[in-house]
Design a protein that fits this description.
alpha/beta; Rossmann fold; DNA polymerase, domain 1; 2 domains; 7-stranded parallel beta sheet; globular
């Protein structure tokens, strides 16, 4: 009897790790390097999850494509410098490590689909000791940016799973739109960078407010058990 593989795909920034302070700092440094006024922090938080050049273009639509590339390169340099600092800090969200371990124990395959570069993703995995637990690592380097479903579909393919038995977990509308386009389950997390109401509107099947609830929710999003209407699971319920 064949057992269907179950796949849980995670976003990184705003879902697994709290990185907004470093992203905002690097964007600010990149803007200053090219003589622009500092970007608004709330505007930067809105574009976390997009591929870098698309994020820059969204923040400064009046600039040329060439200028977008220059600022994007400046951002990479600034973020690399920040990453080398002894006080560099991008913590895992509370309960993330335990949830990943529980899902592994319960037979789930784990993967990543992120707007980060592969270099940035590898650094995060090494820093938090997460080597070897993800069967697929999809980044903006080799895929269309979110919300295009390409990186999620590639993760499903590499894992040998099916979209009906796969779930995307993320904190932005880009993640929810990507999941819906790919035909996977869509789990919105309430601790990230887009509001719960936005995640619902973008198609989240389920909203979760605490990592402790996540493993118990995912089986209900597999195959025919997936529901069309979202529910909200709160750590305080």
């Amino acid at each position: 009897m064949t057992v269907s593989l179950r796949l849980a795909v995670f976003d990184v920034d705003g879902t697994l790790i709290d990185s907004q302070h470093n992203i905002i700092a690097a964007m600010t440094e990149a803007w200053r390097a090219h003589g622009y006024a500092d970007p608004r922090p709330e505007a930067v938080r809105r574009i976390i999850g997009l591929s870098l050049v698309e994020a820059v273009a969204t923040l400064m639509p009046e600039a040329s494509p060439e200028e977008h590339l220059k600022v994007a390169h400046a951002y990479k340099d600034a973020f690399f410098t920040l990453r080398q600092a002894p006080d560099h800090h991008e913590p895992l969200f509370p309960g993330a490590r335990e949830a990943l371990a529980r899902l592994e124990d319960e037979g789930w395959l784990l993967a990543v689909a992120t707007g980060k570069t592969r270099r940035g993703l590898d650094a995060m995995i090494e820093r938090h000791g997460l080597e070897g637990i993800f069967v697929s690592l999809q980044t903006a380097d080799g895929n269309p940016g979110k919300p295009h479903p390409g990186m999620l579909l590639r993760a499903v393919e590499e894992a040998g799973a099916e979209t009906a038995n796969s779930v995307m977990i993320g904190d932005t509308t880009f993640d929810m739109q990507m999941a819906r386009s790919a035909g996977t389950g869509a789990v919105g997390v309430a601790w990230g960078y887009h509001a719960a109401s936005e995640l619902r509107a973008a198609g989240a099947h389920v909203l979760v407010e605490d990592y402790g609830h996540l493993p118990g929710l995912l089986p209900g999003l597999i195959g025919s058990e997936r529901e069309g209407e979202e529910e909200c699971v709160s750590a305080r319920s």
